[in-house]
Fold this protein.
Amino acid sequence: MGGYIPDEKIEEIRSRADILEIVSEFVTLRKRGKSYTGLCPFHGEKTPSFTVNVDRQIFHCFGCGEGGNVIRFLMKINNLSFPEAVRSLAVKVGVDLPEREFRKERKEPGKREKLLQANRLAAGYFRDALNGPEGDRARTYLASRGIGAEALSRFSIGYARDGWHFLKDALGKEAVPAGIAEEAGLLVRKDRDWHYDRFRDRIMFPVLDLNGNVVAFGGRLLGNGEPKYLNSPETPVYTKGRVLYGLYDTKEDIRRADRAILVEGYMDLIALWEGGIRHVVASLGTALTREQVLILRRFTKNVVLLFDPDQAGRHAAERSLKLFLEEGIHGWVLRLPDGYDPDAYIRTFGPERLYGLVETAPSLTDYYIETIMGPGKTVEEKLERARTALPLICAMGDALQRTLLIRRISEYLGVSEELLEKEVRKRRFRKTPAGETAAPESKKEPLPDPLELSVIFCLMEHRDKWSSEDMKRLLPYFLDSRAKKLCRSWMEARQAGEAEPGMFLENLGNAEIRAKFYEMMMGETPFGEDVADRVMEDMARRLRERWFRFRHREIQRQLVEAQKKGDTERCHNLLEEKSRLLREELT
Ligand SMILES: [Zn+2]
């Protein structure tokens, strides 16, 4: 596995990395006993079932079953291929991958890599253009908006020149095929093979994923015209609503402040950043999505929404509230006076004043009750208002929070608390509560018997104690074909000297069995080295006994059947087999 990166190298990189450190970049972990737990970044949950075991350098989620070593974690969380994850980890832990491998890689990069490279080159080109003589007007404009050199370089802001083919020519010089640049959303195709620049006369804001890859661009028109803001279309490396603008650069500030201020666009974000408010992130022109909430939750559970107070902004706040309640995020709403966007507000009143507003912002629930739900005059109206809030109340997974919200609403509307509670109970039990996305439905095969898995687990745990010969003797006594196959491949891996359980499990085809193993590895080792021999002898004996029991029962069943049919020959054969089995059992 790993293609062009040799296995020893992968193992070296893996063993140098500390899983706790890497996972902590994405998940807030708390120590609990010998392990660390946190909210799983791979499924929605409110009580932590995501666990990291430092001794074994693995993670496992008891909720969704995802688990593995540090490489698997990076693959999952950053949506990387195996070699990409290994490479990003190598950089982190300071292992140089030989040049040879890079060249080989460069010769045949995947589609994703090609698109990212086109974006990277484009970002460099835009940056150069901003700093060159053709960037004069753009620089003047940025300076007039108070955007200084530090922000320009931190956010790699650039300029797309006013013309149809500047970027196209620049990418052409770098041998980027027009088709790739088109797929990356940088060029637009007109007719069969005529391409032109998508972004013209625009200030360019590269959108980075959490690995620092440029996945898209936002462009703000410099002169007059429409549209004022133009973003990259969706591409194989960019899905709207899955990326948060600025997070790559502000995630540490957000983690430190344990709070994020969520704004709509890149100009808002940079205005706040320039004003010294750096725990800020932008949703990038779309309504906030669940994916974005889950990404943000890796860094903080406290989010201040800074939206325009118009109708769309209210709608966005309502939608966000539902997502926040479901995902266990504490939200606040910061409304600026009419006519002010964050940028204008900061330039008029200064960042301290804005910061003051952040500190005193009402909670999202208060905002919802007072501004969106609103009071009612007649009894009917009040009930109607209360009913609009029911889906929200039902979405709350936390019972205490739910009770508090019900009380708040009943006080506000003057509607009986019991009545609201009854309605909520009716709704909640009609269907499973939203939010807690449970582990995927299991209509799959049941797992092999725990004993069989435990035997294999012990073989991995105390791998030096048992020889391949010992293992070979055990093999026939597995009843589950998958467990048997697993035991055989572990035996073969050991013989080939590739016996590192983590890597071995990574190559295991069956995801459920792999998850089960990681779960077992999460627990304390049930016994120490000193008694390992005896425990394993014992397990091997039980495995064997179980197998004989099963065979005896099977023969007995067939015997009864043959007798019923009066098949004497078959009866005879079965009786013979039975005594053979008995003899074998006693040896
Ligand atoms: Zn999970």
